[in-house]
Prior knowledge:
Chain A contains 10 helices and 10 strands. Chain A has helices at 40-47, 70-76, 93-100, 107-120, 122-126, 137-149, 167-184, 195-201, 219-224, 226-233, and strands spanning 2-11, 14-24, 29-34, 55-60, 63-64, 78-81, 155-159, 187-192, 204-209, 212-218. The longest helix of chain A is centred in the last third of the chain and has 18 residues, at 167-184.
Amino acid sequence: MLELKNIDAFYGNIQALRDVSIKVGEGEIITLIGANGAGKSTTLMTICGMVPPRKGEVLFEGRVLNDVSPEKIVQLGISQVPEGRLIFPDLTVQENLDMGAFLRSDKDGVNRDLDQVFGLFPILLERRKQLGGTLSGGEQQMLAISRALMARPKVLLLDEPSLGLAPLIIRQIFDIIKQINRESNTTIFLVEQNANQALKVAHRGYVMENGRITLEDACDKLLANDAVKKAYLGL
Amino acid sequence: MEYFLQLFLGGLSRGSIYALIALGYTMVYGIIELINFAHGEIYMIGAFMGLIVAGVLTAMGWPTLSILVIALIIAVLYSAAYGYTVEKIAYKPLRGAPRLAPLISAIGMSILLQNYVMLAQTPDFLPFPRLIPDLEFMGPYANFLATSDLFIIITSISVMVALTMFIKFTRMGKAMRATAQNRKMAMLVGVNVDQVISVTFMVGSGLAAVGGVLIASHIGQINFAIGFLAGIKAFTAAVLGGIGSIPGAVLGGLVLGWTESFAAGYISSDYEDVFAFCLLVLILIFRPAGLLGKQRSQKV
């Protein structure tokens, strides 16, 4: 469904991705793990059209996304929950969710999805009129996920949703991610440093080091892999 | 007391013009963090367009009030087109360049527009017709407030209320706020940021044109250089209120208008600019982010 083929990407003159190839099938949860600065976020930004690749191809449902604008990519069905959540601090919770549905014109569908995300995260309904910047970290993460869901994406890209959150909230967030995947058959591309959790949730995983994919396998095999255990699981 | 009220209302009228122009500075700064130094020239061009329309319609014998309305509308559209073009020519190619580059480009644009109008329209002051008639029911109050002041106050307030509604409730308004708060995230939810920037320039320029036509009709003469001082004053107002903040621009404009009016009334009109800029210096010392501006902590 979504495929990266031999991607090279740069920030100025600094190469961030080297020959990266990743395949995501429909309905799958895949995860990309790796250390800080390995190029995980860049991979997501490349898919979203924010950091266009210098070499290689991003394919989505058979279409090349390389030169497609970020807003068009959202319209095609790819939404991102970026690292650090990037909530609009001076918009209310409701307005943040409205922004998620910015490109949609089907009012009924939007209202239905609004009910759905309030079902997933009832706390957001309570905080509906509050400014986004006043929410706690966990609530902001919930809002960021909900905002992405409001675009009704086919593929949901999540960048370190566990960053800076308490263990209990992390578990709750990962449960919801599984639930979203199961109930609406949304394909999920999860980037994480919290490898242990991510490999438990996902079906397949990729390991990234210095901008290269060094390993790819089913998650149970990665969890049993000695190198992965040593480098990412602290075992 | 009567004198005080007179100065108060005069300051309100003057301040609401500053506020109209300051809104353009602050909205543009909020979205792309650029001080648009060509904004005063857009105001001046609005006033000239008003003069041209007024000249033509007066020759055709139209009633003054309808001339005013049409002159305002055409000046707004014309200035909006200028704002749009200036952004596309002078700022858009420099997106992503170091911040000094678009700033220099803005100053260049300001000089270019001034000189272009000077060559096209002569450097002399041209008389601007009084488009705001003295209304009869204002007769008893004429000591406090001229009809043109009343008209300026009412028009400015209506325009600002309309702007607030636009920003608060429309889709484009929400996109503008989202872009100002986090441009990257706005792009990730599908906002066309280029379009938002264009609209911001057009709206800001339109507001400046309203100010330009109203004040030109009030004062009665214009030339190519009027945008300079008006631009600096409005910029002061925007910084005073907290640049990037829309209510701040309005508040800053009014505070500046009152400061000037009271300084001129109680001390000497020679000193009104001195007080205006002293106020700016004081605010910058004691509240660097402006009256309603947010102190942003910078992450390192």
